[in-house]
Design a protein that fits this description.
about 30% helix; globular; binds zinc ion; five-stranded antiparallel β-sheet; alpha+beta; binds guanosine-5'-monophosphate; 5 strands; 3 helices; single chain
Length: about 140
């Protein structure tokens, strides 16, 4: 646990939160600035800054938990859709540097827009990009 990390303190229960699920390894809390009603965050109790630091096995556990929470939250909130978002790095919108996964119930006419402006690469540019990535795998 990091003394200077707010999500470490929330995950440890030192700072109160609206907890909707907890086990030995994870706490799931309601976001203080929700995109929509029920917006929640999965917090591992151990500190990892982001997707690059979290061990592969833990990342798998987080997504399994996300699936289970989504099913329960959909039943409870009667939402119409669901976004799962996970930001890494300032440029990608991460503001709290303790790994977390956003669970965002979506409602028809909720007025939110979780989207991006699509690019228009040529087939050649797509191939070039794919070659760069494949070179690392
Ligand atoms: P990020 O932008 O890093 O992906 O997401 C951080 C999220 O944490 C934001 O949606 C923000 O509203 C939420 N948040 C920041 N501080 C607190 C806090 O002290 N308590 C809770 N429950 N949520 C927080
Ligand atoms: Zn932390």
């Amino acid at each position: 646990m990091r003394d200077d990390c707010i999500f470490c303190k929330i995950a440890a229960g030192e700072i109160p939160s609206q907890t909707i699920y907890e086990d030995d390894s994870y706490r799931v809390i309601l976001d203080l600035g929700p995109a929509a009603k029920g917006h929640a965050l999965i917090l591992p109790k151990e500190h990892y800054a982001d997707i690059f630091e979290i061990p592969e096995e833990k990342a798998g556990e987080v997504f399994r938990l996300a699936k289970n929470m989504a099913v329960k939250m959909k039943a409870a909130l009667k939402c119409d859709g669901f976004n799962i978002v996970q930001n890494n790095g300032k440029v990608a919108g991460q503001t709290v540097f303790h790994f977390h996964m956003h669970l965002i119930p979506r409602y028809t006419d909720d007025g939110q827009d979780i989207n991006w402006k699509p690019g228009e690469p040529t087939q050649e540019e797509l191939k070039e990009t794919a070659d760069i990535i494949r070179g690392e795998i």
